[in-house]
């Protein structure tokens, strides 16, 4: 039992280690820094969005619209390049992400509706907008050299994108564990009613959480568009699921109140290196699917096993049962 | 309050209790009917092709396949299971197997086996969600991914064609002028409605969604009930997939993608609560009718696909927002 | 803010209407600084609602509130807190995923700017908990505590905020005598500091002990405010119910028969072990002890809600293995849980649907619920227990606590059990309803049922039980017979200290 | 020698046989294939190019799903001296400097052939609907634009009533076709579907609505088996055979030549055959 609990606490490290070891065995030169850097860059897009989602999930909310915001922000940043220049266009793109997040947040807080359904709807809206303004055709940027520069690796490991991700996730870790607003996020996710009663501005926290998630999705989308010099309405359609998987593998609970930035980092890296390792082996996509699905389920089952059995058998779950993912509907 | 009840209480302390929530209650029930009516009226004015038997039958036929899934998904939402995201996998399973097995064991056994195997996927979901206690979103996402991967590996990505014309004719045919798929959908909806609103299983489903621990402490087999909702959805999707395969006479692994969102959309627009404990099959079907009619009107008006998506998105926001507002007034 | 006279709080003409219920009508309520002001009333009288209006949780439909002489408007709890008002809720309202210390300082964690000063917070929280006499580790995750421990944290949280007005809504309902005494020490200290204390309880003995003034509510209206001197429990009860309530604890006259439920050396590997007792037909067996002694866990394990790892259970002389509540029901065991909101009711369902839930299968033919059987079942119990309002179709969460409790008991009687386990059946239930519940229990044993009653309230245990088992730290004492029963004896067994 | 093959998908009616043919041929040539599947996700593909570069392979065969997005990745391959060619779908002209060749069917050309075929069927006069694939998808864009451009070019008196997306999905095509038929009814004198699967959807919808009326001339693309049946029975007018086997083999053959240091043409089309009732007996279906 002890072992299981330990295994679950450090599961991300264990899996990450296992993945690296296995891939080192099967892939020639996998542990070379450049390959690691590749995995990291691969993980950066998922990772940036995962940062926002980690906060939201801890606060008991979810955002399914990240992939669509990703596409929309990228498109805007590319379209505007010709009009206002690359950097301003990029900033506007990120702002689009922020605004999209603000819309999500305002609707969830204002209408007091379940965020799962709401962001399902806004996902549709943002995705439709992306198709609408591009007439469903991909759009092209002005400067391909910039793309090349952005994708360059420094110190053999970091691209600008992956370095940004690492910095942000470390910041997130400090914020979540060491600051009062960070702790309040947990309170809001764990028991919204109690948080409210205690004078915590839960609505504001939830709203800002959505803004953060939108902004980061926007940032990731803008970076992606700069790196590929393209904005496309179909970008990011597979992203949301991967991001949720990464965050959950990292031990953040979908019901709110529990989670950590470092866990998310581990989850993102795990998924990144797993993909690279499997790709190096030329494993067919559907086998990759089966493997990722199995890992996801096994991890969550393990988590269940230790959180229910880790406590003395027979003890019952906490009295406060408000499920925060459902927050909003019956306040 | 009935007169008899008044008599029992005898005392007048009970005039504190009134039935203030009735109006709101009605409004939340009638809201959707009004919305459907509005769409029908608008459609009839805007497009001469709309209010024709042919078009309405088209709408009905188009919604039947997803409608069968909607019936199952209602159970998932009511039992507090959030959503079943493995529907694309179960539909693919139903479609591919019901066609692929035809040459081996004949059309009817193939169909039955396809539905049964889809049910098995549902059982896996159910065990993970109901017995192991995993969040349904994650469990069905994972199981769906695995299922779809296996299906793809099994058929190697190629299209599976039907080989039995009789079954194809049956699935595409009509009975008394009504397409067979529509009849099957209606039958399944009726059964679903009966089970949810009249049978002990339905009461258990509502109780489990309403308060899991209280239901457990009331000797309701909550785990089985929760698992059951996923099995029901998987069986429904299996049937839906099988019918889809038969009508199209071809099936690909990705044949069912998008059906999970359409089904959830319909159920939610129908006002079924995503936190569970509340909802009915007619409501979900009404949600489906509304969405389908609206889409149809837009198509007939030549509205472009992205704009349709945009409108639909706004609509869902409106629907859930209104539902939440009404519910808040109805019962605090 | 200048304090006008000693009037801490003055609520005038407060009304509050919920859809379907007028919870408060034109209530006037004033509290002075440096006093303990008790509020009593039957279940559903509107006590909690009045306090939630004061706390900013509910906006009043009409009326004015003056705090410290100034008129205020409160839109949310934070507004009330800014005015120095703190409330300990009837229902526990804490964050399970944060630590105890973080809960105590929830919403006002100490720190410069936004950095969290964890060490300081834990130190302070430990001090407050110690003062309350609660042995709780401030670093522990709150969700791992028992209800009563959580209740203590809830009190600590309000106390640590150093309020000017503190509202305690049935704070002792899940506390033992020992912890109640510690709480009263603190309350007296706070009174000495000039804090206004509003104290809601159904335990009139406590009210007489601690309060300076008492306000009685009935059916949403203020009946009277009086100084505590010169008022008796009987008088308070008369004001509350508007009639005389004679025998609060009726002794059971039933004839004792054969042993119905016998548990032998059971244990769950964690919260209790080596517990043995038996209950006979027509007998009420009391199960008491301090908070967290493991009574609830025993009951839940016997009922199949959690696992037994050792020992045996037999009903009517036959050994039974029970792994789920439905097996328990089949074996003839019913269990009324202590946590009504969490385990007792399905809030979205009507009283009728709640009552028929455990025995639904018996009301169905070919899977279909027989509507008439369903209706008549609930009608019988609504009438028999005079559930108010007497309408089986009303959603159960719109009923007051006591009426909900009656419906939950009805639910379990409908299962026609051989033995009924009641876990704190009268917790947070008013005197009138309490007497009714005791009356119902009396009837049941008279009809030959065996009853196990878990209660923390000694007078209740002494009043109704034929034999009493005392638990301490997961172990059970040998049963005490009526002749051996006394408050001192029970406390000695419960605390492990020899009686003086 | 190792060649990185970034394919559109592992599991797809067209891609799977193309992949198989490519890999089989590679074995014959003694080339090792590192096959990466994008699963129709452009972003994944752009990142997979980096994996290829990191693996230091000897050549890259890319199945692009977007006209632009892969350019930076291809540029990086070029910096690493890895030759790259495109299979199946074209990219924009900006990509030219970074690739050695493009082998595969010309989707734009397919659109043009379809326009000619439908023109012929309609005698140069009529009004048609286009059932297009996924919005934003390169193949869709090529096939639609080739068609409409060609109609303009030839000044045909053919009006496009509407273009709707059905995502290369038969069921979606069935649904949109029902609506098209309700909306335009007899105005529809011809149909152009971006692939045979969707053509099938239209046929089913037509038969539902007008059980006794013959279908208008329908032109599809791909040359699937069931399309051949439909052409034989007269339900469809024509399709364009584009053989996935040819597609795969040509790509790896070309790459092998490049690795051997030979010069290759920058555009190597696979043959496209328009199949109508006249030649349906003599042509092999694509899959
Ligand atoms: N949120 C609500 N919505 C509807 N009715 C409510 C609500 N809260 C309370 N009520 C009703 O208002 C009345 C007063 O309830 P309240 O909780 O204030 O009683 P109480 O005196 O605290 O009773 P108890 O002793 O059982 O706690 C009851 O009839 C109750 O059913
Ligand atoms: N929600 C919970 N989570 C974890 N452990 C719990 C929980 N509730 C109780 N426990 C533990 O179970 C043991 C027995 O508690 P139990 O609730 O059975 O005692 P009790 O005598 O019924 O007291 P009370 O009901 O007054 O709290 C205690 O050690 C307690 O800490
Ligand atoms: Mg109360
Ligand atoms: Mg207890």
UniProtKB/TrEMBL annotation, chain A:
Main localization (coarse): membrane
Keywords associated with the record: Cell inner membrane, Cell membrane, Membrane, Transmembrane, Transmembrane helix, Transport
A Pfam family hit: BPD_transp_2
Subcellular localization, as worded in the UniProt entry: Cell membrane
Bilayer topology annotation: Multi-pass membrane protein
Keyword Glycoprotein included in the entry's annotation: no
A GO CC annotation given for this chain: plasma membrane
UniProt organism field: Mesorhizobium plurifarium
Protein name: Inner-membrane translocator
Membrane-crossing residue ranges in chain numbering: 12-31, 43-59, 64-80, 86-109, 116-134, 154-176, 205-227, 233-252, 259-277, 283-302
PANTHER family, A to Z: ABC TRANSPORTER PERMEASE PROTEIN YPHD-RELATED (PTHR32196:SF21), ABC TRANSPORTER PERMEASE PROTEIN YPHD-RELATED-RELATED (PTHR32196)
TrEMBL record, chain B:
Keywords: Cell inner membrane, Cell membrane, Membrane, Transmembrane, Transmembrane helix, Transport
Amino-acid biosynthesis as UniProt keyword: no
Organism superkingdom: Bacteria
Subcellular location, record wording: Cell membrane
Species name: Mesorhizobium plurifarium
Primary location class: membrane
Entry GO MF terms: transmembrane transporter activity
Topological type in the membrane: Multi-pass membrane protein
UniProt protein name: Inner-membrane translocator
TrEMBL record, chain C:
Entries under InterPro entries matching the protein: AAA+_ATPase, ABC_carbohydrate_import_ATPase, ABC_transporter-like_ATP-bd, ABC_transporter-like_CS, P-loop_NTPase
SMART domains per the UniProt record, alphabetical: AAA
Domain ABC transporter: residue ranges: 9-244, 243-498
UniProt cross-references to Gene3D superfamilies, sorted A to Z: P-loop containing nucleotide triphosphate hydrolases (3.40.50.300)
Highest taxon, organism lineage: Bacteria
Membrane association type: Peripheral membrane protein
Annotated compartments: Cell membrane
Family: Belongs to the ABC transporter superfamily.
Protein known as: Fused D-ribose transporter subunits of ABC superfamily: ATP-binding components
Gene name per UniProt: rbsA
């Amino acid at each position: 039992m002890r072992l299981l609990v330990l295994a679950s606490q450090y599961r991300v490290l264990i899996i990450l280690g296992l993945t690296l070891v296995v891939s080192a065995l099967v892939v020639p030169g996998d542990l070379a820094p450049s390959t690691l850097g590749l995995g990291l860059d691969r993980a950066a897009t998922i990772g940036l969005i995962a940062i926002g989602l980690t906060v939201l999930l801890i606060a008991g909310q979810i955002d399914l619209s990240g992939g669509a915001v990703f596409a929309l922000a990228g498109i805007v940043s590319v379209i505007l390049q010709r009009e206002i220049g690359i950097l301003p266009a990029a900033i506007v793109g990120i702002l689009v992400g922020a605004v999209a997040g603000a819309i999500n947040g305002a609707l969830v807080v204002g209408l007091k509706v379940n965020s799962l359904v709401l962001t399902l709807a806004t996902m549709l809206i943002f995705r439709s907008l992306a198709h609408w303004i591009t007439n469903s055709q991909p759009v092209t940027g002005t400067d391909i050299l910039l793309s090349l520069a952005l994708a360059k690796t420094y110190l053999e490991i970091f691209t600008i994108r992956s370095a940004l991700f690492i910095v942000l996730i470390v910041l997130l870790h400090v914020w979540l564990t060491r600051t009062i607003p960070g702790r309040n996020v947990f309170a809001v996710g764990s028991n919204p009613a109690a948080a409210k009663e205690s004078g915590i501005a839960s609505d504001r926290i939830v709203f800002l959480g959505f803004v953060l998630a939108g902004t980061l999705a926007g940032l990731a989308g803008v970076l992606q568009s700069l790196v590929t010099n393209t904005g496309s309405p179909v970008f990011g359609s597979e992203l949301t699921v991967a991001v949720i998987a990464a965050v959950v593998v990292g031990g953040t609970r979908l019901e709110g109140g529990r989670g950590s930035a470092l866990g998310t980092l581990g989850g993102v890296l795990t998924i990144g290196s797993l993909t690279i390792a499997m790709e190096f082996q030329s494993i067919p996509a559907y086998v990759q699917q089966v493997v990722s699905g199995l890992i996801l389920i096994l991890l969550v089952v393990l988590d269940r096993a230790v959180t229910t059995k880790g406590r003395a058998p027979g003890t019952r779950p906490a009295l406060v049962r408000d499920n925060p993912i459902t927050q909003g509907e019956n306040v | 309050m009935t007169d008899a009840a008044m008599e029992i209480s005898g005392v007048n302390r009970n005039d504190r209790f009134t039935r203030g929530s009735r109006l709101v209650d009605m409004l939340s029930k009638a809201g959707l009917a009004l919305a459907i009516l509005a769409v029908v009226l608008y459609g009839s004015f805007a497009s001469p092709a709309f209010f024709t038997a042919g078009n309405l039958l088209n709408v009905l036929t188009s919604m039947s396949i997803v409608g069968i899934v909607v019936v199952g998904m209602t159970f998932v939402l009511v039992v507090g299971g959030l959503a079943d995201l493995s529907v694309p996998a179960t539909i693919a399973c139903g479609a591919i197997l019901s066609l692929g097995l035809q040459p081996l064991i004949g059309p009817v056994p193939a169909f039955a086996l396809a539905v049964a195997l889809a049910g098995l996927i549902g059982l896996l979901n159910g065990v993970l969600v109901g017995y192991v206690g995993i969040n349904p979103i994650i469990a069905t996402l994972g199981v769906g991914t695995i299922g779809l991967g296996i299906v793809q590996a099994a058929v190697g990505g190629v299209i599976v064609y039907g080989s039995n014309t009789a079954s194809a004719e049956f699935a595409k045919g009509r009975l008394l002028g009504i397409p067979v798929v529509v009849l099957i959908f209606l039958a399944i909806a009726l059964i679903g409605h009966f089970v949810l609103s009249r049978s002990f299983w339905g009461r258990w489903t509502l109780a489990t969604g309403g308060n899991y621990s209280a239901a457990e402490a009331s000797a309701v087999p909550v785990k089985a009930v929760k698992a059951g909702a996923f099995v029901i959805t998987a069986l429904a999707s299996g049937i839906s997939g099988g019918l889809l395969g038969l009508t199209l006479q071809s099936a690909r692994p990705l044949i069912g993608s998008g059906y999970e969102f359409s089904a959830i959309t319909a159920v939610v627009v129908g006002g079924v609560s995503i936190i569970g404990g509340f909802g009915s099959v007619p409501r979900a079907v009404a949600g489906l009718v509304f969405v389908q009619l609206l889409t149809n009107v837009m198509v007939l008006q030549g509205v472009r696909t992205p704009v349709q998506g945009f409108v639909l998105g706004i609509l869902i926001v409106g629907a859930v927002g209104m539902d939440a507002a009404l519910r808040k007034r109805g019962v605090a | 803010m200048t304090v006008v006279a000693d009037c801490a709080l003055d609520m005038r003409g407060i009304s509050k209407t919920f859809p379907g219920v007028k919870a408060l009508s034109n209530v006037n309520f004033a509290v002075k600084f440096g006093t303990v002001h008790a509020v009593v009333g039957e279940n559903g009288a509107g006590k909690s609602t009045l306090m939630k209006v004061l706390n900013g949780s509910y906006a009043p439909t009409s009326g004015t509130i003056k705090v410290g002489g100034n008129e205020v408007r409160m839109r949310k709890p934070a507004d009330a807190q800014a005015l120095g008002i703190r409330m300990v809720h009837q229902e526990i309202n804490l964050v399970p995923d944060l630590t105890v210390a973080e809960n105590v300082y929830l919403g006002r964690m100490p720190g410069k700017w936004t950095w969290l000063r964890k060490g300081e917070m834990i130190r302070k929280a430990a001090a407050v908990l110690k003062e309350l006499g609660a042995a709780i580790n401030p670093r522990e995750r709150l969700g791992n505590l028992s209800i009563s421990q959580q209740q203590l944290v809830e009190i600590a949280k309000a106390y640590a905020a150093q309020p000017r007005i503190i509202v305690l809504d049935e704070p002792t309902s899940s506390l033992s005598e020992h912890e109640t005494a510690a709480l009263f020490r603190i309350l007296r200290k706070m009174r000495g500091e000039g804090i206004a204390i509003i104290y809601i309880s159904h335990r009139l003995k406590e009210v007489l002990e601690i309060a300076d003034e008492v306000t009685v509510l009935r059916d949403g209206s203020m009946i009277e405010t009086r100084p505590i001197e010169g008022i008796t429990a009987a008088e308070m009860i008369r004001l509350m119910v508007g009639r005389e309530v004679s025998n609060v604890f009726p002794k059971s006259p039933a004839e004792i028969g054969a042993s119905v439920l016998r548990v032998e050396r059971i244990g769950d590997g964690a919260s209790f072990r080596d517990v043995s007792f038996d209950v006979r037909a027509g007998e009420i067996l009391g199960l008491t002890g301090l908070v967290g002694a493991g009574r609830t866990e025993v009951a839940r394990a016997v009922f199949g809600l959690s696992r037994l790892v050792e020992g045996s259970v037999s009903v009517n002389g036959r050994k039974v293995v029970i792994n789920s509540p439905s097996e328990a029901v089949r074996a003839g065991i019913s269990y009324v849980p202590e946590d009504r909101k969490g385990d007792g009711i399905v809030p979205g369902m009507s009283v009728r649907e709640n009552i028929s839930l455990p025995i639904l299968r018996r009301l169905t033919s070919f899977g279909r619920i027989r509507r008439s059987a369903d209706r008549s079942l609930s009608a019988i119990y609504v009438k028999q227990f005079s559930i108010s309002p007497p309408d089986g179709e009303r959603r159960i969460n719109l009923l007051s606590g006591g009426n909900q409790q009656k419906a939950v008991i009805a639910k379990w009687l409908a299962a026609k059990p051989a033995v009924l386990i009641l876990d704190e059946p009268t917790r947070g239930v008013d005197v009138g309803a309490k007497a009714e519940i005791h009356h119902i229990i009396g009837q049941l044993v008279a009809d030959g049922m065996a009853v196990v009653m878990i209660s923390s309230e000694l007078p209740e245990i002494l009043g109704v039980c034929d034999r009493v088992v005392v638990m301490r730290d997961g172990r059970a004492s040998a049963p005490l017979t009526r002749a051996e029963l006394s408050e001192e004896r029970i406390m000695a067994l419960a605390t492990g200290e020899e009686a003086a | 020698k190792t060649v990185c093959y970034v394919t559109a998908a592992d599991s797809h009616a067209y891609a799977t046989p193309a992949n198989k043919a490519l890999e089989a041929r590679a074995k014959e040539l003694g080339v090792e294939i590192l096959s990466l599947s994008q699963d129709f996700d452009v972003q994944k593909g752009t990142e997979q190019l980096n994996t290829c570069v990191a693996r230091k392979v000897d050549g890259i065969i890319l199945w692009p799903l977007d006209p632009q997005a892969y350019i930076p990745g291809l540029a990086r391959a070029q910096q690493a001296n890895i030759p790259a060619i495109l299979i199946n779908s074209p990219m924009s002209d900006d990509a030219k400097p970074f690739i050695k060749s493009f082998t595969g069917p010309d989707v734009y050309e397919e659109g043009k052939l379809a326009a000619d075929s439908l023109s012929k069927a309609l005698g140069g006069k009529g009004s048609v609907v286009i059932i297009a694939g996924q919005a934003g998808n390169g193949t869709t864009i090529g096939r639609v634009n080739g068609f409409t451009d060609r109609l303009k070019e030839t000044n045909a008196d053919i009006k496009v009533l509407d273009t709707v997306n059905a995502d290369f999905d038969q069921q979606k095509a069935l649904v949109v076709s029902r609506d098209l038929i309700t909306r335009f009814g007899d105005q529809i004198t011809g149909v152009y579907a971006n692939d045979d699967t969707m053509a099938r959807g239209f046929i089913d919808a037509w038969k539902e609505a007008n059980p006794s009326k013959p279908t208008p001339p329908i032109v599809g693309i791909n040359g699937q088996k069931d399309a051949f049946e439909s052409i034989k029975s007269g339900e469809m007018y024509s399709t364009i055979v584009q053989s996935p086997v040819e597609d795969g083999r040509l790509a790896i053959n070309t790459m092998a030549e490049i690795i051997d240091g030979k010069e290759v043409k920058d555009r190597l089309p696979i043959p496209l055959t328009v199949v109508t009732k006249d030649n349906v007996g003599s042509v092999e279906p694509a899959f």
